Every structure is written in structure tokens, then in C-alpha cells.
From TrEMBL:
It comes from Streptomyces pratens. It comes from the Bacteria. This is DoxX family membrane protein. Keywords: Membrane, Transmembrane, Transmembrane helix. The chain crosses the membrane at residues 66-94.
Length: 141
């Protein structure tokens, strides 16, 4: 049986999958203050999230990161599917980076100290887009 991943995808899938799984697991049980901080930053960028209670948002974020991390780690999930999920998730994170005041130096894309934790997620966007492009342009012979 042939798995739906290529050998060249194993290392980036392991790295991003382990990173996201760890991040999601660390958010499973957060205190009210941490949940409020996570929620506050997200709802400032994406106002529709203001309708979701902070604790619920933190649980959903945790579940999403765990699910995406597991999808990347499990070789039965096609790379194009895992890559699309990774690109979508990291795009949302970078949207927060670009739209949140104080994350970037004035008139620049360069991050401030406060923006570095979000700006570094650009690598996940690159990996996700790379997976999708690689799978869509692959010769299927």
C-alpha cells in the first residue's frame, strides 16, 4: 500500500506537526487570564470572534492546533490536505501580525519584539503553500 505522502514531505510535516501539536496541547487547560489574552488579540483582528466566549475560543484554538498537528503527523492524511490546512491557519496568524498595532516597526514589515512570536509563523505559511504547490504540480505518471 502506497501512503499519500512523498519522502521529501516527511521532515517538514514532522517539524510543523510536532510544533502545532505541542502548541495545541499546551492550550488545553488555560486560566481565564490567558484565555482572555488569546481571545482579545484574535477578536481585535477578527471582530466576529467577539461573539465567542474567551474560554470557548481557547478550547477551539487548542482543538484546531491539535487537529492540524495530528493531520501533519499522520501519513494517511494527504499532503495537499494537510498543506491547505496549514496555509489557512498560518494565514490567519499572519493576518493578526499585520493588523495588530505594535507588532511591526512603523512603515515596515519588520517585527517589533512583541511581533516576533507571530511573525515567525511565516515559515508555516511557506511550508503549507509549498505542500499545496508541490502536490498540484506533481507529475502523476
Amino acid at each position: 500500500m502506497r501512503l499519500p505522502i512523498e519522502l521529501r514531505h516527511v521532515a517538514p510535516r514532522l517539524a510543523t506537526g510536532a510544533f502545532l501539536l505541542n502548541s495545541g496541547l499546551s492550550k488545553r487547560v488555560v486560566d481565564e487570564e490567558t484565555a482572555a489574552q488569546l481571545h482579545g488579540m484574535a477578536k481585535n483582528t477578527y471582530p466576529f470572534l467577539g461573539k465567542v466566549p474567551a474560554a470557548t475560543f481557547a478550547r477551539l484554538l487548542s482543538a484546531g492546533e491539535i487537529t492540524l498537528g495530528a493531520a501533519l503527523l499522520l501519513p494517511v492524511v494527504p499532503t495537499v490536505v494537510a498543506g491547505a490546512g496549514l496555509a489557512a491557519f498560518s494565514s490567519a496568524l499572519l493576518g493578526m501580525y499585520l493588523r495588530t498595532p505594535g507588532m511591526r516597526e512603523e512603515g515596515s514589515l519588520r517585527p517589533t519584539q512583541q511581533g516576533t512570536p507571530l511573525a515567525k509563523d511565516v515559515w508555516m505559511l511557506g511550508v503549507g503553500i509549498g505542500f499545496v504547490v508541490d502536490e498540484m504540480t506533481r507529475d502523476r505518471r
